[in-house]
Structures are given as structure tokens and as C-alpha cells.
Description:
- This protein is of the alpha/beta class.
- It is built from eight helices and 16 strands.
- A seven-stranded antiparallel β-sheet has the order 4-3-7-1-2-6-5. The chain has a seven-stranded mixed β-sheet with strand order 11-10-9-8-12-13-16, with helices on both faces.
- Residues 103-113 have low confidence and may be disordered.
Amino acid sequence: MLDTIATVASNTEIAPGYKLLTLNFNQAIHARAGQFAMLKAHDAFEPLLRRALAIYQVGGATQLSFLYQVMGRGTQALALLKPGGRVDALIPLGNGWAEFFDNQSAEKNPSSLAPIERAIVVAGGIGSASVLMWCEELRQKNIATQIFFGAASARVAQGCGLADFRALNMPLTLTTDDGSLGERGFVTAPLERFLRDGGNQQAAIYTCGPWVMMKRVAEIAEPFKLPCFASLEAPMGCGFGVCVGCVVAMKDADPKSYGAYKRVCTDGSIFPAERIQWEVAAMTH
């Protein structure tokens, strides 16, 4: 983990309300697919705390990009940055997708014991930022991969990096809530259809997006007995486990014990979906 100040190389608007921030660092950053950073505009007094953003792309040993939606004060401050601006960065943080793919992690994650021959990636909205690098890595591993990409509208899909996912030349199913692009409806509908039609053979599911979407993905995976892994988002104060502000409830744990809750920042942000108490999480996120 490195606490440093990065320099803005570019901060490009991809679609209204969505930007791609590229940062240059003064030393090599060894980032893995699925990890994140805590970022804050260096010269901004408000807000005080940094914002958690998934690492979207690696442009070299010292350059990383972050795809983000401009929502609150933290991302609004980032959106104002120009080339040459400075960003306080705590990086890299969290585990990575590969930890739930390699059989070397089987002792830690029993769901990864089964050999994985096919990957299913389900991205919802800005959750796409967490999985683009993982899709690239799966392609390098020669793992047959089906991508399900869901967004509220064509504009949101554009802002969430649809062009980058299409450039991967991997099978991709697109949905939008309003039907302005791709299939109309939620992305979980074609996912369930795909599995029922035989796409569940020795497959693992990797998902990131809205909580309600990931909860449904976990529910769909269960009857097919597929390992399913979710990258969680939660309000974070520090990003390295001290503030305990990002905890999520776990299943099959003594509610009075420490193990009943896990910190998204240091225990995750990626978890086996079957371990998460989605109903409790939905009430707090």
C-alpha cells in the first residue's frame, strides 16, 4: 500500500456525468484486476475523506486510469481536475479477482476448488470499472468468457465504458432499463436465460454493480451450484481497515463474534457471494 500524490495526465468526459481520470505516479504501482484506490483532489479542502474508486485500466507501470460517475462532493472535486493537477492516492487496496480463480486459493475460498473452464462476468452500471481488467486477464488466460453488461440507458452504458468492453471482442450481452440500447430490462434476465440454456458448465460468475443486482445474480447462481464472486461497494472512511465504516454482514457466523462482519476494504472488496447476508447489506448500503 502506497500513500502518495499522483499527477493528472487527463480527466476526460466519456458521457455526461461520467469521466475517465488517468494518473501518473512517481513509482511503479503493482495493481491487480479488481483492486481499488482511495483518491482525493489534493487542493480540495472539502470533503476531508478520500473516495474509493476501482482501478479501471493500467497504462504502464506508473500510469493508472479510473472510470467514475460524478455524484457527490468527492467526485465533483475530482471532476474539476485538469492535466497537471494533483491527487492524493492510497493505492493499491483490496484483493483481486484472480484470488478467486487460481486453485492455489482453494483453502481460503472453497468455492474455487472446482476447475473453471468458463467465466461469466456481470457488470451493472459503474460497477463495470471493477471488471474490465479482469476480462482482459481472462482473455489472456484463454478462458471462454461471456460478458453481461447492464445500464440504465444508452448514455449510462457509454459512460460506463461500453466501448472498451466491446473492443475486447468477447461475447457480450447488453441490456438497458429503458430499452434505448440492447435488450430492454435488467441484465439478470439474460443471465438466467443463458444458464438455463446450458451456459452453466464448469463456469464461475464474477459480478460488480448495484447491490440489488448482485443479490439477484447470487440467487440465480445458487440453483446451478456455480461459484459466484461479488465486488462490493461500501462507504469508506480510510480504506485500510481502521475506521470499520464499511463492514458487511456474513452468513453462518456467530452474530456476536468478529467474524459476523467483514470489512469491505481489507477483507474484500471481493467476496464469495454465498457468504454475504444480502438482505442486511441492502438495508445499510
